[in-house]
């Protein structure tokens, strides 16, 4: 089933459109990568999807329901979770507070325990303020927080942005594991090659428009793509 | 009637100078200076103390007053420029209070709370009151022209670019800092000269005349008119004056409001206008006339 | 999102335009027969906001009463009131507007030195009488046209009186608590001079800033000198806080303060116990005087509070009476200079004494040409520079009431 | 003993500023602007106490409780009619708008209550003397009320689900929204808290001083200084900074005198910011 579907989506600040008409979709249990140069409008697109941009127009549906008319706060209950770039946890909240913010009650309690067993490092530091966590732990917390609400889709904005290559590899592993939890992933990545390797499909943005789209392997193999957006082999 | 109009023009003109200076600092360079009355006081006292007890030429004193205020402004900016804008606002506000209390405390120099009297008027061709208003208007025109030229110069384009682009602001370069310092200094100069004009116009100054309320009035003028526009400072000052002075006449046709009530209503109306404009029309009254 | 609450430029300008239109329509004083126009630029807001309303309402109430009683010398009074914000530039603008738009002939109830200094060149040039409570010596020098009347006794005379009180009561270790403003510093400095001349010692002087929430360290410093009397030179709000905190800190030394600081409102707020035995001085020799009783009644009507709450209102009351008496004496008055001359003729100290406008009117009808008006705020005598000599009454607070003790006359 | 008494004086001074700094800091932490109307909220709080005392015949307790309700309502109204619309403009614009609100509140107060002073009725008592160390009974109550107020604020912030949401929104607005936190509910809690802090703070200030339209405004700048020193948006830091500033200010009086003590906090503010631009207990904001 088709989860997220964007048609002719435009997103912008003030009078300028950064995203200038994008068609995009994410299927259930699918990992989709969005790559592109700096300033191509990747982050703005995600903000638009999450309802956090000042101005969004076009069509946007989630599991058949209209998204545009819903506030950012409503999107979570539809089943979309968001992990922004860098500032992806609440730094002054403790680890367990970061998780419990996503929901309370019996259900949440058991869900939290699941998270702690999934990320044991977090389980050991339940009462620590998130600001005191290491970069890797923080990233884990961000994932755990996003998973708390049992979403159907997780939107990741450059999950490896501030991480070392070793940690990045770990993060990509985690993203792959999400599939086993029945979660689809829409991911923005600078490390497009690595990201596409674990993705089903990919979109390449340029100047606010989709420049290329296709199955991940096909994009990885495309020589033009190689030259323009992926650069030399890492 | 003519003297009332001249007085209005003189006092309004001094406020307009301050508004123009703030417009330069905040409107064009995005620097929120809430210490206006401090630089105003520095200029005022410098010129007054130089001329009150000696034969120091008034114009020379006014120039020194402006330079001193510019120097202080430049110095303060050097210290606080790297602070975020909210902190900058409060620190500059605190600075102006420090100036005022120093004036109260350093009695040997400033005569303390008793103020400085016997400040000579502005020597020119006509009577003292007319001299003042002519000079105040002339300085205003000069400042407006200078600002106009400055804004359109490469230097002006740089500071405007700095103000508009938040991202570029984050990666603040060395030259950007020096631009900002210069703008802050320039604004300080104009405020200092305004203070000197004020001192020579009234002939008497005391610390009570340099309360933060003056700073807020100037801000009100700039926000009402629309920051970043020459016309904004002018219209804002006129509207502010209309609120403060026009309401005196309003009461003559509304005799059921006593002056005691009117005093409250007048300030309340300014507060109300400020709230409405800031929240519903942040670009100010003149916002639509000039492009962004 | 941006447009949702937008107010259009047109709407804003229309609003301003209509205000301007109303402004243009107003301000034209209607031509009536013998209307005498009085300006009241008072401190409604700002630092002296606690006094201004009482001053202004007293002037308005007096005009109403005088008009009801048939006016003065065939004139009825019209009062134009303004707020000076206790600041010189709004004061000057208010005065200019009153002089030129409302064509007033006298400005009454002007409060501070900065305000009076800003106004006096304008009032001199326009031939308008200026009655004020400024204390700066320069005001006498600026009174070039003889149009100024200074109702506040000089700092020198207040220092003299303070010295007299301390000496008379036999205290040896006075300490002054001085608000950092022109008038209060002047009073303390003057007292110190007299005290030093007399005893050769310099009392401790503690300067305090207005608008502080907590004066404990200042008061602790004052009490450290082990004073037997504390001289407080300040105003009602700070005096209320200081009297309260002095008591809390266990002070037993007596306090001397002006009556406009230790007001009835202060006594009411703190309760009689805290203020018991405080020595207060006022510019009026005796609050049992006939003029004071009459003023008290006017103030009650104007403000619904006892007149002792506001010395400056008593002064405003006297200012109105003097103007009215002058007009009664010389109904043909048309210039400020003539008004000032006539005021000098009715204020004393020579001439037939009178306590009110009604009494003076009778005396004038009986042929008197020189009067000695004895006012609610003092004897209201003025030298040719418009200064009032000091003539003070000293009271003690007993069970929350002022009890008159003795009078002191300033001698240079 | 001299210095102990000065320190005591400073503690009282600090407590008077602490509520104001707390209110400034609370507002900044979530609404992200410096609220210049904070002092005038306190003035409103003090006037409501005076009014309720006049009606009920002098009950201070009832006055404070009533003031908490009324001031919280006014605070909420200010959010609903004004600050809600300023969420997307620069913080300087909000600051200027709050100056407008401050002027407006003060003029409404003076329109109805005049410019004369009022007093809050409480039993005035002499200090208790411990070998020269003086403790004024009302100061104990002031301290108690301040601690109770702090406890209330921190209980709401740290022990309730909505408090968690308030802190989350303060930390990261976008993330909080994506986590389904509705800012409206959080703002209602925030502005109610600000109103309650203002009511109690206003009462304390009114008790120590007199009630005139300017009392809150007069304390605003030192309150700002404390809030910034504590690291804007860090309520506990603000309270600690206020108390430290108060004590240091009073202890400094033998050196700097009573005139300059009023700018002590400003001088410290500038000095500290030169050394630590984010404030004593502030944290470097995360890059967004």
TrEMBL record, chain A:
**Organism annotation:** Alloyangia pacifica
Q: What is this protein called?
A: Amino acid/amide ABC transporter ATP-binding protein 2, HAAT family (TC 3.A.1.4.-)
Nucleotide-binding as UniProt keyword: yes
Supply the InterPro entries for this chain. Answer: AAA+_ATPase, ABC_transporter-like_ATP-bd, BCAA_Transport_ATP-bd_LivF, P-loop_NTPase
- SUPFAM superfamilies the record matches: P-loop containing nucleoside triphosphate hydrolases
Which protein family is it in? Belongs to the ABC transporter superfamily.
Can you supply a Gene Ontology BP term from the record?
L-amino acid transport
Q: Which domain of life is it from?
A: Bacteria
Q: What are the entry keywords?
A: Amino-acid transport, ATP-binding, Nucleotide-binding, Transport
Which Gene Ontology MF annotations are present? ATP binding; ATP hydrolysis activity; branched-chain amino acid transmembrane transporter activity
Q: Which residues form the ABC transporter domain?
A: 1-232
UniProtKB/TrEMBL annotation, chain B:
Task: Provide GO CC annotations from the record.
Answer: plasma membrane
This protein is called Branched-chain amino acid transport system permease protein
* PANTHER family associated with the record: HIGH-AFFINITY BRANCHED-CHAIN AMINO ACID TRANSPORT PROTEIN BRAE, HIGH-AFFINITY BRANCHED-CHAIN AMINO ACID TRANSPORT SYSTEM PERMEASE
Where in the cell? Cell membrane
One Gene Ontology term of the molecular function aspect = branched-chain amino acid transmembrane transporter activity
Keyword list, A-Z: Cell membrane, Membrane, Transmembrane, Transmembrane helix
User: Please, which domain of life does this record's source organism belong to?
Assistant: Bacteria
InterPro entries given in the database record: ABC_transp_permease, LivM-like
Membrane-spanning residues where? 6-24, 31-52, 58-80, 87-105, 125-151, 183-204, 216-244
Q: How does it sit in the membrane?
A: Multi-pass membrane protein
Task: Cite the Pfam families for this sequence.
Answer: BPD_transp_2
Determine if Transmembrane is one of this entry's keywords: yes
Q: Does the record carry Ligase as a key word?
A: no
TrEMBL record, chain C:
Output the InterPro entries linked to this UniProt entry.
BCAA_transport, Leu-bd, Peripla_BP_I, TAT_signal
Q: Which residues form the Leucine-binding protein domain?
A: 37-344
Please name the GO terms of the biological process aspect recorded for this protein, alphabetically: amino acid transport
Know the name of this protein? Amino acid/amide ABC transporter substrate-binding protein, HAAT family
Which family is this protein grouped under?
A: Belongs to the leucine-binding protein family.
Report the source organism. Answer: Alloyangia pacifica
Q: Does Amino-acid biosynthesis appear among the keywords?
A: no
Alphabetically sorted, this entry's keywords are: Amino-acid transport, Signal, Transport
Automatic annotation (TrEMBL), chain D:
Q: What is its main location?
A: membrane
Protein family membership: Belongs to the binding-protein-dependent transport system permease family. LivHM subfamily.
Q: Which GO terms describe its cellular component?
A: plasma membrane
| Signal sequence region | none
Coiled-coil annotated spans: none
Record-given protein name: Branched-chain amino acid transport system permease protein
Localisation per UniProt entry: Cell membrane
Give this protein's Gene Ontology molecular function annotations.
Answer: L-isoleucine transmembrane transporter activity; L-leucine transmembrane transporter activity; L-phenylalanine transmembrane transporter activity; L-valine transmembrane transporter activity
Regions crossing the membrane:
60-83, 95-113, 140-164, 185-207, 219-246, 258-275
Xref: InterPro entries: ABC_transp_permease (IPR001851), BCAA_transport_permease (IPR052157)
Membrane topology, as annotated, equals: Multi-pass membrane protein
| GO BP term, example | L-isoleucine import across plasma membrane
Arranged from A to Z, the UniProt key words for this protein are: Amino-acid transport, Cell inner membrane, Cell membrane, Membrane, Transmembrane, Transmembrane helix, Transport
The organism's superkingdom is given as: Bacteria
Q: Which source organism does the UniProt entry give?
A: Alloyangia pacifica
Q: Does the keyword Membrane apply?
A: yes
């Amino acid at each position: 089933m088709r989860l997220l579907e964007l048609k002719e989506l435009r997103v912008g600040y003030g009078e300028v459109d950064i995203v200038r008409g994008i068609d995009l979709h994410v299927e259930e249990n699918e990992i989709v990568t969005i790559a592109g140069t700096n300033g191509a409008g990747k982050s703005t697109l995600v903000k638009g999807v999450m309802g956090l941009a000042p101005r969004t127009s076009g069509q946007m549906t989630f599991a058949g329901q209209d998204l545009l008319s819903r506030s950012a706060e409503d999107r979570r209950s539809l089943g979309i979770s968001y992990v922004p770039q860098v500032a992806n946890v609440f730094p002054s909240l403790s680890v367990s507070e970061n998780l419990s913010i996503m929901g309370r009650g019996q259900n949440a309690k058991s869900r939290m325990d699941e998270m702690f067993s999934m990320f044991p490092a977090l389980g050991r530091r339940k009462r620590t303020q998130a600001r005191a966590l290491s970069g890797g732990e923080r990233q884990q917390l961000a994932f755990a927080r996003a998973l708390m609400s049992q979403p159907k889709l997780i939107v990741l904005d450059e999950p490896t942005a501030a991480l070392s290559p070793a940690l990045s590899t770990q993060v990509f592993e985690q993203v792959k594991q999400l599939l086993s939890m029945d979660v689809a992933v829409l991911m923005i990545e600078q490390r497009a090659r690595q990201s596409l390797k674990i993705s089903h499909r990919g979109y390449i943005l340029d100047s606010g428009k989709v420049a290329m789209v296709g199955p991940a392997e096909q994009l990885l193999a495309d020589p033009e793509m190689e030259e323009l957006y992926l650069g030399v082999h890492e | 009637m003519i003297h009332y109009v001249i007085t209005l023009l003189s006092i309004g003109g001094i406020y307009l100078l301050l508004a123009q200076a703030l417009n330069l600092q905040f409107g064009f360079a995005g620097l929120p200076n809430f210490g206006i009355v401090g630089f105003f006081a520095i200029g005022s006292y410098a010129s007054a103390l130089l001329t009150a007890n000696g034969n120091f030429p008034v114009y020379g004193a006014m120039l020194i007053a402006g330079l001193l205020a510019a120097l202080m402004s430049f110095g303060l900016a050097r210290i606080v420029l790297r602070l975020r804008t909210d902190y900058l606002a409060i620190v500059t506000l605190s600075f102006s209070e420090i100036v005022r209390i120093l004036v109260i405390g350093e009695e040997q120099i400033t005569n303390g709370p008793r103020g400085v009297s016997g400040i000579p008027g502005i020597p020119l061709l006509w009577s003292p009151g007319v001299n003042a208003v002519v000079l105040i208007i002339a300085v205003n025109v000069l400042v407006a022209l200078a600002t106009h030229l400055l804004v359109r110069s490469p230097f002006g384009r740089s500071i405007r670019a700095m103000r508009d682009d938040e991202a570029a602001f984050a990666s603040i370069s060395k030259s950007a800092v020096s631009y900002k310092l210069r703008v802050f200094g320039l604004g300080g100069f104009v405020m200092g000269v305004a203070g000197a004009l004020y001192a020579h116009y009234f002939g008497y100054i005391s610390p009570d005349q340099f309360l933060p309320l003056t700073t807020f009035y100037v801000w009100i003028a700039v926000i009402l008119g629309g920051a970043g526009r020459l016309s904004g400072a002018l219209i804002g000052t006129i509207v502010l004056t209309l609120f403060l002075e026009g309401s005196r006449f309003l009461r003559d046709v509304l005799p059921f409001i006593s002056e005691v009530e009117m005093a409250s209503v007048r300030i309340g109306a300014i507060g109300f206008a400020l709230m409405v404009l800031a929240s519903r029309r942040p670009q100010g009254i003149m916002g639509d006339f000039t492009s962004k | 999102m941006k447009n949702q609450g937008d107010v259009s430029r047109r709407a804003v300008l229309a609003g301003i335009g209509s205000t301007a239109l109303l402004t243009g329509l107003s301000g034209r004083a209607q031509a009536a027969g013998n209307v005498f126009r009085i300006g009241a630029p008072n401190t409604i807001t700002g630092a002296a906001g606690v006094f201004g309303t009482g001053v202004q309402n007293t002037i308005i109430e007096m005009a109403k009463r005088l008009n009801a009683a048939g006016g003065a010398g065939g004139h009825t009074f019209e009062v134009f009131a303004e707020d000076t914000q206790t600041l010189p530039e709004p004061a000057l603008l208010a005065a200019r507007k009153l002089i030129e738009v409302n064509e007033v002939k006298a400005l009454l109830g002007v409060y501070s030195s900065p305000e009076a200094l800003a106004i006096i060149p304008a009032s001199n040039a326009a031939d308008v009488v200026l009655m004020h409570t400024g204390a700066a010596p320069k005001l006498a020098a600026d009174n070039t046209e003889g149009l100024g009347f200074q109702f506040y006794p000089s700092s020198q005379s207040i220092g003299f009186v303070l010295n007299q009180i301390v000496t008379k009561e036999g205290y040896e270790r006075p300490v002054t608590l001085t608000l950092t403003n022109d008038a209060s510093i002047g009073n303390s400095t003057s007292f110190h001079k007299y005290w030093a001349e007399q005893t050769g010692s310099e009392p401790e002087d503690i300067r305090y800033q207005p608008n502080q929430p907590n004066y404990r360290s200042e008061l602790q410093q004052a009490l450290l000198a082990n004073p037997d009397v504390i001289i407080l030179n300040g105003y009602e709000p700070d005096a209320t806080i200081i009297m309260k905190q002095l008591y809390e800190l266990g002070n037993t030394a007596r306090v001397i303060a002006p009556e406009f600081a230790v007001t009835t409102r202060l006594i009411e707020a703190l309760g009689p116990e805290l203020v018991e035995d405080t020595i207060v001085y006022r510019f009026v020799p005796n609050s049992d005087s006939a003029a004071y009783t009459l003023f008290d009644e006017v103030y009650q009507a104007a403000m619904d509070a006892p007149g002792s709450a506001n010395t400056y209102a008593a002064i405003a009351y006297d200012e109105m009476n003097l103007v009215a008496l002058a007009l009664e004496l010389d109904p043909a008055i048309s210039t400020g200079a003539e008004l000032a001359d006539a005021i000098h003729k009715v204020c004393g100290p020579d001439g037939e004494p009178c306590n009110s406008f009604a009494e003076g009117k009778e005396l004038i009808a009986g042929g008197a040409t020189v009067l000695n008006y004895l006012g609610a705020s003092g004897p209201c005598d003025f030298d040719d520079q418009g200064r009032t000599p000091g003539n003070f009454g000293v009271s003690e607070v007993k069970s929350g009431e002022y009890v008159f003790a003795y009078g002191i006359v300033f001698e240079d | 003993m001299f210095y102990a008494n000065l320190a005591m004086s400073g503690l009282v001074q600090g407590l008077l500023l602490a509520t104001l700094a707390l209110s400034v800091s609370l507002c900044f932490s979530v609404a992200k602007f410096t609220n210049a109307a904070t002092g005038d909220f306190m003035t409103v709080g003090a006037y409501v106490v005076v009014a309720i005392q006049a009606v009920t015949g002098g009950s201070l307790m009832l006055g404070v409780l009533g003031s908490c309700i009324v001031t919280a309502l006014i605070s909420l109204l200010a959010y609903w009619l004004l600050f809600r619309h300023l969420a997307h403009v620069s913080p300087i614009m909000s600051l200027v708008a709050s100056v407008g609100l401050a002027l407006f509140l003060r003029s409404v107060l003076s329109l109805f209550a005049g410019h004369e002073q009022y007093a809050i009725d409480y039993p005035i008592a002499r200090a208790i003397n411990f070998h020269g160390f003086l403790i004024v009974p009302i100061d104990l109550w002031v301290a108690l009320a301040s601690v109770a107020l702090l406890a209330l604020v921190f209980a709401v912030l740290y022990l309730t689900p909505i408090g968690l949401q308030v802190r989350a929104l303060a930390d990261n607005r976008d993330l909080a929204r994506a986590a389904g936190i509705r800012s409206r509910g959080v703002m209602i809690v925030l502005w109610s808290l600000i109103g309650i802090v203002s009511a109690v703070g206003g009462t304390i200030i009114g008790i120590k001083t007199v009630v005139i339209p300017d009392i809150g405004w007069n304390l605003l700048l030192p309150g700002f200084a404390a809030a910034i020193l504590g690291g804007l948006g860090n309520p506990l830091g603000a309270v600690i900074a206020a108390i430290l500033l108060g004590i240091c200010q009073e202890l400094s009086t033998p050196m700097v005198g009573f005139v300059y003590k009023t700018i002590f906090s400003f001088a410290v503010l500038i000095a500290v910011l030169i050394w630590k631009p984010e404030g004593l207990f502030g944290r470097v904001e995360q890059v967004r």
